[in-house]
Design brief:
This protein has 501 residues and is mainly β. It contains 5 helices and 44 strands. α3 packs antiparallel against α5. The longest helix has 16 residues. The N and C termini lie far apart (122 Å).
């Protein structure tokens, strides 16, 4: 009997056991795998397929599972045992309508080479995962259990709908994630990888807790392209330029262990698109920020350069960009350093990143009556500092009994050793910054045009500056220093009406 004819007869006999309903179990050559190596059962939830045989020991054992478009899998369970290396098991599933879960319980070296279904993919867990393609959602979680390995993990997950479950390669790497949306506002997905993520491409919003920072891996992000991003992003660094491009706001906090280095922008956001924080050098290892952050498109864009910048939080969207140790954001302090103000003052000082303190006082406050006199610490208990609700970068200075600011005196505030960056190991903020203000005599509060009278001209200036302080003139009109020109400032001006004495 010719050899080719014999193979055909054997294959045809084996097909009796390799096909069940619309499901065929074969090897990489399309030949059927004997049913002694697998079993198939059915229930109202769909098929349950159990793979338990190493049918090609000391070679590659392939299970290629083909299903017609109407077949639903409740579960594929991989119970194949084998040596840790030398007899790998490869699995490919294609053509089914839905996949409930695939789990590996055996100890053979296993790789899910391809999972392709027309509907939803559920829980997938194996040593190593190649490509997952879902015609609807990926419900997840998707988990690669590989040991420490920079080349294994999860290669590609693509959903025509949402990725709704976690994507975890805790000791491996993640390649590409593609979906119309990641997670939801009430259920953000977790993404973990010791050796980084190559690319995340989302047509809509991404709700995620991305954490790539480990002591043993690389923890880098290649590309993030999405509409708006919510949650937290913690990475060691980037491994390509133009790594983040968003068409919607960055609501998340992006923390970078190392620097933000380059000539061209690495982070690109829409105008007013930063509502969270970008924090550079979280590990406090003297990393630097040289790559500008771009807001808007070419031709109508704004580039923000570090390590300090003059743009106000309102100009970038309400958020902040800072390098550890944080410097004081001088232009965002109200009133700005170097200006004059009335004694009824509650100044707000801001830094380029979130700050905190647990003991003592965060600021050393000093005063003097004349420029020629030495600075002296104010009386103990004359002032106290509070956090500003909704703004982790700010500290408000309040007087303990009425106005602690004395007319005709100058005051300055210097960060103390207690003031810390609210990131990582709580490193100290930069102590090289000083905020200074001159307190006007009571009689001249409200003289905004400097003509020694408080009159109609000053009233018109105050009305023109009504609202949030956003420039030097409105900062001058903010007579009580609360960051906004409003009714209290109007009353102070009216109370000082007339000639300055």
């Amino acid at each position: 009997m010719p050899f080719r004819t014999a193979i055909a007869i054997i294959a045809s006999l084996s097909c009796v056991h390799a096909t069940h309903g619309g499901i065929f179990v074969g090897d990489e050559h399309g030949l059927p795998v004997s049913s002694e190596h697998w079993s198939l059962s059915t229930s109202p939830e769909g098929y349950t397929l159990i793979l338990h045989g190493l049918h090609s020991p000391w070679q590659e054992t392939w299970y290629v599972i083909d299903a017609d478009g109407n077949e639903q899998f409740n579960e594929i369970r991989i119970e194949v045992d084998g040596p840790a290396a030398g007899s790998p098991v490869f699995i490919r599933v294609q053509g089914a309508s839905t996949m409930g879960c695939i789990t590996q319980t055996g100890n053979a070296e296993t790789r899910l080479d391809l999972i392709e279904v027309s509907g939803t993919v559920g829980h997938i867990q194996a040593d190593s995962i190649g490509t997952i393609m879902a015609g609807h959602d990926v419900a997840g979680p998707i988990i690669a259990t590989t040991g420490p390995n920079p080349t294994r993990g999860i290669e590609h997950v693509q959903a025509a709908g949402m990725i709704r479950g976690d994507v975890l390669a805790v000791d491996g790497a993640i390649g590409t994630l593609v979906a119309t949306q990641l997670g939801t506002s009430s259920a953000p997905i977790a993404i973990r990888s010791r050796h980084g993520v190559d690319s995340i491409v989302v047509e809509g919003d991404a709700h995620m807790d991305l954490h790539l920072r480990t002591a043993e891996g690389t923890g880098t992000l290649g590309c993030l392209d999405a509409d708006a991003v919510h949650g937290t992003l913690a990475i060691d660094g980037f491994h390509s330029e133009s790594a983040i491009h968003l068409s919607g706001p960055l609501h998340a906090d992006l923390t970078i262990g190392s620097g933000l280095v380059g000539i061209n922008p690495i982070v690109e956001l829409p105008l007013h698109g930063l509502q969270g924080a970008i924090i550079v050098n979280v590990d406090d290892v003297d990393a630097i920020w040289t790559a500008p952050v771009r807001f808007g498109e070419d031709g109508s864009d704004m580039l923000v350069y570090g390590p300090t910048y003059d743009q106000l939080p309102s100009e970038v969207g309400g958020g902040s960009i800072g390098v550890v140790p944080f410097r004081m954001h001088a232009s965002a302090c109200t009133p700005e350093s170097g200006q004059s103000a009335g004694p009824d003052l509650s100044p707000v000082l801001r830094w380029y990143g979130p700050v905190t303190w647990t003991t003592g006082t965060p600021l050393v406050i000093q005063h003097r009556a004349a420029d020629t006199e030495p600075w002296q610490n104010v009386e103990e208990g004359a002032f106290y500092c509070t956090s500003v609700i909704g703004d982790a970068t700010a500290i408000r200075i309040e007087s303990t009994h009425g106005s602690g600011f004395e007319a005709g005196h100058s005051y300055r505030a210097i960060p103390s050793a207690s003031l810390r960056c609210a990131v990582g190991q709580l490193p100290a903020v930069s102590v090289s910054d000083v905020w200074q203000i001159e307190i006007e005599d009571d009689a001249c509060i409200g003289d905004l045009d400097g003509d020694a009278y408080v009159a109609v001209g000053d009233l018109l200036v105050l009305i023109a500056c009504w609202g949030e302080v956003d420039d030097p003139l409105s900062s001058t009109a903010d007579l009580n220093g609360d960051g906004a020109v409003g009714v209290i400032d109007l009353l102070l001006l009216i109370g000082s009406w007339g000639e300055c004495v």
